[in-house]
Design brief:
Keywords: Copper, Signal. By secondary structure, the chain is of the alpha+beta class. The chain is built from five helices and ten strands.
Length: 192
């Protein structure tokens, strides 16, 4: 009898969850996005306060990268297109330059143009010093950024991070081989 009652309770709970959307929100992390000020590809000021109330995909890249940034940026444009195909227009992308001494807004704008990125909701920011982005990446996104003296390349994460409307990093995806369906499902779970 007790087993039947427990089974019935579980079944009712599942019906309620499915009826309410029921898709669990990703919760791998609970990292708060710290305040940060920068300049975007249009030369406009950007502050992480502008992220509040919006869902963001966040990554780290730089315009003179000759390895992982081109495919990662292309992948983000594909994700952006797939989200639109699924009726999700209000998703935002934020790319942090990990080489701010080289990446001017003009260079960034040209870089994004090569990938035909829709910059309506995409901010690629610069305008801070190297120490600031290295510290910010480590403290907020638990990721390593390092510019090595004498090298024109910068070590940085290849993850795409999902940030919710409250400014919390919830999970990350492989930016080189992103699971687009999983990203769409996770974004939908935040917007439902």
């Amino acid at each position: 009898m007790k087993r039947i009652l427990v089974s019935s309770a579980i079944a009712i709970l599942m019906v309620v969850l499915v009826a309410c959307g029921g898709k669990p929100k990703p919760n791998d992390y609970d990292w708060k996005v710290a305040s940060f000020e920068a300049t975007d590809q249009d030369g406009q000021p950007f502050n992480t306060e502008q992220m509040k109330g919006k869902v963001w995909l966040v990554n780290f890249a730089f315009t003179s990268c000759n390895t992982v940034c081109p495919p990662m940026t292309f992948n983000l444009t594909q994700i952006q297109d797939k989200l639109k195909e699924n009726g999700i227009q209000d998703i935002h992308i934020l790319s942090f330059s990990v080489d701010p001494s080289i990446d001017s807004p003009e260079k960034i704008k040209k870089f994004l143009g090569k990938y035909k990125a829709d910059t309506t909701h995409w901010r690629f920011v610069t305008g801070y010093d190297q120490a600031a982005i290295e510290s910010y990446s480590r403290e907020t996104f638990k990721s390593h950024v390092q510019k090595v003296d004498g090298d024109d390349q910068v070590n940085h994460p290849t993850s795409i991070f999902l940030v919710d409307q409250e400014g919390t990093v919830l999970t990350r995806y492989n930016g080189l081989e992103p699971q687009e369906d999983k990203i769409i499902e996770d974004v939908k779970s935040l917007l439902d």
